[in-house]
Amino acid sequence: MSATIKPCTLDDLLTMPSGEMYELVDGNLVEKKTGAESSLIAAELIGILLTYIKINKCGFLFADGLGYRCFAASPDEVRKPDVSFIRAEKIEGGRLPKGFLPFAPDLAVEVLSPGDLATEIDEKVEQFLAAGTSLFWIVNPAIRTVRVHQKNGPVVVLHAADELTGGDVLPGFRCRVGELFVNLGS
């Protein structure tokens, strides 16, 4: 993330042609920066997670365009993780609401891009955890790690040979961290 564009409302963000490329932070449009490497890793993770989710029929997986409006301290804030998962039981009748989701995802993932600032990512993690997200993964392509934040647990840094698990959110999910970076080469 980075460049603040201009003041904006929730309706503006929903109706603007390229709204999926922005978050609404403190009443300002903030462009979500991304690059080829981070997009490739997010796609790889989505593929791995989607296989698990389809087999287990446990919920819904979303890419980076979905906005969450679930922050008690900032009710007009809209945040968009690169990948997110919601348990099936959270979606009443299996029908997704239109627009932004008014509750926190069970899992949120950020894949770091060259323009991301550590303070902005840390703030985003804290917001989601405070809103009810149980698990937040930060994937760092530069050093090929995944930093795991849990609502009520320690922060753990996993390296390529380590195993990433879904904890209570995705019971039984396992993936070697290095699998996320397999298409990056050496």
Describe the structure in your own words.
The protein is an alpha+beta fold and 186 residues long. It has one domain: tt1808, chain A (Alpha-Beta Complex), CATH 3.90.1570. 22% of the residues lie in helices and 28% in strands. It contains 3 helices and 11 strands, in the order βαββαβββαβββββ. It has helices at residues 10-15, 36-56, 118-131; strands spanning 4-7, 22-25, 28-31, 59-62, 83-87, 107-111, 135-140, 145-150, 156-158, 163-166, 170-176. The strands form 3 sheets. A 6-stranded mixed beta sheet has the order 4-5-6-7-8-9, sandwiched between helices. The protein has a 3-stranded antiparallel beta sheet with strand order 1-3-2, with no helix packed on it. The radius of gyration is 16 Å and the shape is globular. It starts with a strand and ends in a 10-residue tail after the last strand. The model has no long low-confidence stretch (mean pLDDT 87).
Summarize the structure.
The chain has 186 residues and is α+β, with helices and mostly antiparallel strands. It has helices at residues 10-15, 36-56, 118-131; strands spanning 4-7, 22-25, 28-31, 59-62, 83-87, 107-111, 135-140, 145-150, 156-158, 163-166, 170-176.
CATH homologous superfamily label? tt1808, chain A
Just give the CATH class.
Alpha Beta
What is the H/E string? EHEEHEEEHEEEEE
CATH architecture: Alpha-Beta Complex
Round the Cα radius of gyration to an integer and report it: 16 Å
